[in-house]
Design goal:
By secondary structure, this protein is α+β, with helices and mostly antiparallel strands. Strands 1-4-5-6-7-8-9-10 form an eight-stranded antiparallel barrel. It has a single domain, classed as Porin. About 5% of the residues have low confidence. A hairpin with a 6-residue loop joins β2 and β3.
Length: 200
């Protein structure tokens, strides 16, 4: 009888871990590629909507600060799952922005810069459906941004390194080995980032 109980206990110990493993635990490494709108573009747009950028009633000319254009923020990241809830990794991103000043029909460029950032990231998974087919998480990144170019004359010129951070409060992803994600937050990667990631 004792031998039978020990055999059943041993079988349970061997089988249970396999049943308990989620998709993420079986594939603990992930590589992500993301895209988000430039934070500078978004903030300047909000400033203009607040009335700091105006259209002259007589001439119809826009006066104020306006984005000179940006291709958006492109980012690549790697993370490793440390346990079912926490992943640690790093993220690198690139963005090019420019700012223009409009006054009485004249347009002058205040600055144009390449922005490179490198963040150490932590991800906390707090909601799962099934074997990670759909999950929700929060993410925090801390690091530095290299500003290359002239942002505003006398403010940031040449190459400058400044602190950078990204706090994504509500994030969600779905899929299996190839997953799509959406991250909403605030920081050097903007307000909303979309992308794809793969696990292996």
């Amino acid at each position: 009888m004792k031998k039978t109980l020990f055999a059943l206990l041993a079988a349970c110990l061997l089988v249970s871990p396999a049943k308990a493993q989620t998709f993420g635990e079986l594939h603990p490494n992930e590589i992500s590629a993301g895209y988000s709108m430039s934070l500078v573009n978004t903030v300047v747009g909000l400033i203009n909507k607040a009335g700091l950028g105006n259209v002259d009633a007589d001439s119809g000319e826009f006066t104020g600060l306006q984005s000179g254009g940006s291709g958006g923020i492109i980012s690549l990241s790697y993370a490793r799952q440390m346990n079912p809830y926490v992943s640690l990794g790093a993220s690198a991103s690139f963005n090019r922005v420019s700012l223009n000043a409009h006054d009485a029909g004249n347009v002058s460029t205040l600055g144009a810069s390449n922005l490179y950032s490198l963040l150490v990231t932590g991800k906390f998974d707090w909601f799962h459906v099934g074997k990670d087919v759909f999950s929700m998480y929060s993410k925090l990144g801390l690091g530095a941004m290299c500003v290359q170019g002239d942002v505003l004359e006398g403010l940031l010129n040449g190459t400058t390194v400044i602190p950078a951070a990204q706090c994504s409060f509500i994030c969600m992803e779905t899929g299996k080995s190839i997953r799509g994600f959406l991250e909403l937050g605030l920081g050097s990667l903007g307000f909303a980032q979309i992308g794809i990631r793969t696990r292996f």
